[in-house]
Amino acid sequence: MSNVQIPRAFQDLFRTDWRDAAYFGGRGGAKSHSVAGALVIQAAQNPLRVVCAREIQESLRDSVKQLIEDKIADYGLEDHFEALKDETRAKNGGKFVYKGVWRNPDALKSLEGADVLWGEEANRFSARSIRLIRPTMRKPGSRMIWTWNPEFDHDPIDRLFRGPAGPPPNSVVKEVSYKDNPWFAGTPLQTEMENDYRVDPATAAHVWGGEYVQAVEGAYYAAQLAKAREEGRITTLAKDPVLKVRCFWDLGYRDATAIWVCQFVGREVRVLDYIEGRSQPMAYYIEQLRNRGWGDAIQELPHDGAQQRLTAVGSAEEILRAAGFDVRTIPNQGKGAALERVEAARRLFPSIWFNDTPEVAPGLKALAAYHERRDEKRNVGLGPMHDWASDPADAFGLMCVAYEEPQQKRAAPRYAPSGPGAWMG
After folding, report:
1. 28 and 115: one domain?
2. Where in the sequence is the domain holding 151, given as residue range(s)?
3. Residue 415: pLDDT above 60?
4. Calpha distance 318→307 (Å, rounded)
């Protein structure tokens, strides 16, 4: 083995007396390279079964497979490993497998008997995925490594390791940055970092300094969300037992389906819950609605809810009606609908309250990240960016478009008496 150097901040990876090792921080801290290097060294010495996981992995190109195999080559360990199509196999019987865990039963099965889980880009992991992963890693002595660049303080991984309750027992939790990387100085990355701090200090503090995102550049709702937090409108909410609950959908066919659960209470909109899924059948969302207590809610669908695209069984509207739900399909708003939803949401935002729960937090995260796509050459906006945040934002905007402000009842006119004896008589 050639001379191998791992930054001092990651030396705990070579101990075995911890259950979790969590490394977070900004760019340039060598988190991925250090973890990959440490795992390759250990897997060459012992028959380890290592699961390298991400929340969403569309293909192996999204995984750390190439990084693992680059480290094998860098350390001159090619004779100890064999690179296969879907895994990297060690000659001593160990192996690296690469999985996306989002709604993936096969990924969870692969954790049974695993020695090490490496959760890369851990800020993307949902609370549900983390809850399922932890008890599945049940082999005696098994360990979990988590690496991420922080985004929001309400991300499940940050709540787990940096929240007020403190990290789980037997955890190593370390913030690492470019300052912990002895090979950072003098590289093109240092030049890039210095320029970023000069041009946009706030963004650089997130990207390089590891601070939480304050606002995505061009975010539509950055000011509105900040105001909601300042005014205490992200708080504990309870369902009003008298009023109807409404569920506003954005239907995903190749991307996510998002559902905002709310009540219109006078001039307020109270967001009680949020449901999201990817590549799930309608039965999944029906089960979620019923299990969370929204079985009697009105289901408010976008215009494509009446189209027979979701499954061979029928349209989303037909499926929900057959399941016993009250369904309303909102007509297409036509050209410019996306920006119409944005403007409706901005107008209504001062009256919107959000339930402060782990379930609603991912929806808030999406709203904070929903931003404008721009033509930098012409310096013009091109409308909303279509990415992971757009589906939750579309459902939220549909809720705002559908909201109707209650009309105050006008008092009956009061007429003065007339006739004999009256002052007007």
Report:
1. yes
2. 8-198
3. no
4. 9
Same domain, 384 and 347: yes
Phi and psi angles of residue 378, each rounded to the nearest 5 degrees, phi first: -95, -5
CB atoms within 10 A of CB 76: 12
Residue showing tokens 């320029």: 195
DSSP 125-153: --HHHHHHHHHH--STT-EEEEEE----T
Task: At 292, list the tokens.
Answer: 């969370």
**Residue 379 — very low, low, confident or very high, per pLDDT cuts 50/70/90?**
low
Asked whether residue 396 is domain-assigned, the answer is: yes
Token pair of 376, please?
């930098």
Is the same domain home to 135 and 238? no
pTM for the structure as a whole:
0.61
Q: Can you read off the two tokens belonging to residue 406?
A: 């209650």
For residues 323 and 55, give the distance between their C-alpha atoms in angstroms, rounded to a whole number: 30
pLDDT, residue 376, reads 57
60 vs 210, which has greater pLDDT?
210
Indicate whether 74 belongs to any domain: yes
Name the DSSP class of 377.
T
- Beta-bridged to residue 257, according to DSSP, are 277
* Same domain for 242 and 177: no
